[in-house]
Design a protein that fits this description.
- This protein has 10 helices and 10 strands.
- By secondary structure, it is an alpha/beta fold.
- The chain has a domain of 200 residues: Alpha-Beta Barrel (TIM Barrel), CATH 3.20.20.
């Protein structure tokens, strides 16, 4: 479907790209490439600020980003005209051995997000690590309350639930909302991802409950039982229905694709990033059109 669909330039004002979609490009290349493809927003990954590109297996960022790297990244994004919809990633508070260091990293990540004028910083609080859910929740709550007390900029924090084989702690939007309720702060919300949530069975109720605590939205496609992702609209996830529910809950921001399949090894994924972006743009705008999304600028719908 997305390869034949035309790109809706107005709906592109509601579309963004998370940098993992183009892992071997730099931040500057990402910003220029996304803008050239007509996207409105970029999701900046701290991984690229740490190492320049994303090569090899996934890692959890934990480094202090040099000031010159932050400055260059800010300039590249500003020159592109893109907004920063989110910064990825901080967290891992549930490992008691690294608890304090993880908090310090989040405080630094907030500074980076503030420099980029990002709408939010995505938080993954960690895994259970042998703890019961109550103990893990207590560690996450205490960590994030401390972060909120000590942060140097009012950047919002967005909890992103992920599929169970990536973490055994926050797997549903309801669990993320429960954690947000426990923290009880207006700058703590959630970041739904269709690929992670479509088979939880509680999405519709959870997204309605989230309401104005939806700080961003990853629009990703796939197939049941397959760990690879599809171009939006090319899989079997009911994306239009999920977007329609988010809009009904009051969401007015961008929908950002995280097409991680290009990181896979093999000729099937050896596609130029410009073509990946073109396919994503076509698929995303068709999904948004089917969902009846307002074509205005983010925040104006």
């Amino acid at each position: 479907m997305p390869e034949q669909a035309a790109v809706d330039k107005l709906l592109m004002r509601r579309c963004g790209v998370s940098e993992v979609s183009t892992p071997l490009w730099t931040v500057a290349e990402d910003a220029a490439g996304y803008a050239a493809a007509g996207f409105a927003a970029i999701g900046v990954w701290l991984h690229k600020l740490e190492r320049g590109r994303m090569e090899g297996p996934f890692w959890m960022p934990d480094q202090i980003i040099p000031d010159d790297v932050i400055k260059d990244s800010v300039a590249a994004v500003k020159d592109s005209g893109l907004t920063v919809s989110h910064v990825v990633l901080s967290g891992n508070y549930t490992d008691e051995a690294t608890h304090d260091r993880a908090i310090e990293h989040t405080l630094h990540a907030i500074d980076v997000a503030a420099a980029l004028d990002a709408a939010c910083l995505i938080i993954n609080p960690g895994r259970l690590n042998g703890l019961d859910r109550g103990a893990a929740t207590d560690l996450a709550v205490s960590a994030l309350r401390r972060v909120l007390r000590e942060r140097r900029a009012p950047v919002r924090l967005a909890l992103e639930p992920v599929i169970d084989w990536q973490s055994d702690f926050l797997n549903t939007l309801a669990q993320a909302l429960d954690l947000a309720d426990a923290i009880d702060h207006p700058d703590v919300g959630v970041y739904p991802d269709t690929w992670h949530l479509w088979e939880t069975g509680t999405y519709d109720d959870d997204i309605a409950r989230a309401g104005d605590r939806i700080f961003g939205f990853h629009l990703n496609d796939g197939r049941s039982g397959d760990r690879n992702r599809e171009i939006p609209g090319a899989g079997e996830i009911p994306l239009a229905d999920m977007v329609r529910a988010a809009e009904a809950a009051g969401y007015t921001g961008t929908y950002d694709v995280e097409y991680t399949t290009p990181m896979a090894v093999g000729p099937a994924f050896d596609v130029p990033y410009e073509e990946v972006l073109r396919r994503c743009a076509a698929g995303m705008t068709q999904v948004l059109r089917e969902a009846g999304v307002d074509a205005g600028a983010p925040g104006d719908s």
